[in-house]
Amino acid sequence: MQIIMSNNKNSTECTNIQPLSINKYDIELEDLRVQRQPAFSHMNKSNKHHHENVYSISLKQNEEHHILSMKSLILIPSYTNPFSTKLFAENKELTGMAQSFLSVLILILLPLVLLIGIIFRYSINSLIYAFLLLVLPWLGSITEKNIRTRFRLFILLIGLISLLTVVAQIIFQAIILGKKPYGHTLKNCTELTQTLRYFGLERLDNSNALRILRLIFPDVIIFAISTVCSFIIRRRLSLPRHRETNEALPASTTSPLATSSASTSTDTGSEQKLWPRLLSILRRLRLFVQFVLVGFAAFVYPSIINSVYFIFFLIIAFIWSLSVNFGRKYTSARALLAIYTGVHLLTFYLYQFEFFQEALPPISLWSNITGLTAIVTSNCTDTEPSFNRKLVWTDYVNPCALLILYFYFAFETNQILSQRVRSNITTVQALEQQSLVHNSEGHDAIEQNSPTLHRRWSIEQPGDQTWQGRIIFVVFSVLRVLERQSYLLSLIAMLAWSITFHSLLTLVYLLWACFIWVLPNSRQWCLRMSPFFTIYGAALLILQYLVGFKVSFDQLNFSYDRRTMEQIGIRIEDFQPAFIPLLLKV
């Protein structure tokens, strides 16, 4: 949308510019940013005192070269200032190199050192680092506004906590060093010693270099990295301000018609064809990645806590089978699941402490069915925690799967929320100025376009002769063929399931698939009955998930023996992971 601020209240002059196309396909990958491009023009040559300020609001960052329709122009008197300087100042963008450098610094290096401090030392300080690490994805994207506010405060908080920890360690070691002999006041298994150990304060006598590095150097490294990050951010952010001040005057005298002409010459038709289809492929790929990550987190360790991911997985599968669009309710549910995953990770980390393992022993029925695994065990007599090497591979992969799921869902949710906030700000500002429109044609266009500033793309695009367009066309063709022949894949999967897992429960799938296959219009019947296939398959998966808990057959107290239960379809492997059977059935 383009908003013109004019001193002449009766000005209705406009030029004919080609309108933007309003496409159909809704994409979540918008990156709505408000950009300011002031310019002056003298549309009425007879009135020398008349001038206009043109402000361009681009719907996408990469669509700044599109030509805007005159129907989307709003003529506003000069005494009205709907877009204040503060609004545009808050949306200033960093340069590409600075943004990439800060992204690597904040989103890769800083989380890496926090993760090192979390893994190699189990204490209350490390628990605080874990909480800060989980907060990082919710801080938003790397923009100048977020860098100056959220990320700067976040890094200062990390530096302050690490500095306090280092100072506390120095004071503690100085106190016990001053009382000769060293550490004679701290006896093993006393309440004071245990409390100090929970905060990472331990005696260092008879310690090797690795133990000293594990106890002290994580805080030193985190403090050093946070200090470097703060210094680099301050230096990097000081550059755009000077450049903006120096470039303010030339930018304000730029002609809008010249800008439109330059943007027209650089805009190509191939980009307009490639971009919508590429976004559509990425959108479908993102949904598939979310489906896979949730399923992996649910199946890697069947338990009560992980059953929430399993339920979410079944809900996604059922919605997909009904061909229902994923709307805002799905986004809200995904945000709640991300928060639940964060709480789950903190609980899992707390279980590695000695007091938690004493309350809920690692080798017990309740610890197995809840999904809490003691990867690290410790006691008051040993100075070093011991790594549990007797666990199966799923016990070690479970926290990694949860961490990947949390970060992916948190980044996705935060991106969608940021886009909605920017879209709402732009929409509200546009709707407030509809009463000031003097051009009736522009007024009708605003009523149609202002409430829906999200770009909608149409899949139906003319053929593209570039190699990128051909690749995207081939991908779309393959996806459409698979979608068209999906009923055959469903019938084959039902037959394979019934043959691989031979039981009375899977016999239903065998009979069902054979019956549909012989019908004259098998595709139509298969699509009609797909919800029932999903419901019955979900029931079998739920049954397999429940018997896949890390328990033995004798602990479940079935009325029948093991062989009879296997003929029915319930097969239990004592204390063995059920990941492979669940994966094959899915």
From TrEMBL:
Gene Ontology CC entries for this record: membrane
Pfam families: Piezo_TM1-24
Region (Disordered): 246-269
Transmembrane stretches, start-end: 101-120, 126-142, 154-176, 212-233, 285-302, 308-326, 333-351, 391-411, 487-520, 532-553
Domain Piezo TM1-24: 121-585
A single MF term (Gene Ontology): mechanosensitive monoatomic ion channel activity
Keyword entries, A-Z: Membrane, Transmembrane, Transmembrane helix
Chain intervals with Low complexity compositional bias: 248-266
InterPro entries: Piezo, Piezo_TM1-24
Superkingdom of the source species: Eukaryota
Name of the molecule in the record: Piezo TM1-24 domain-containing protein
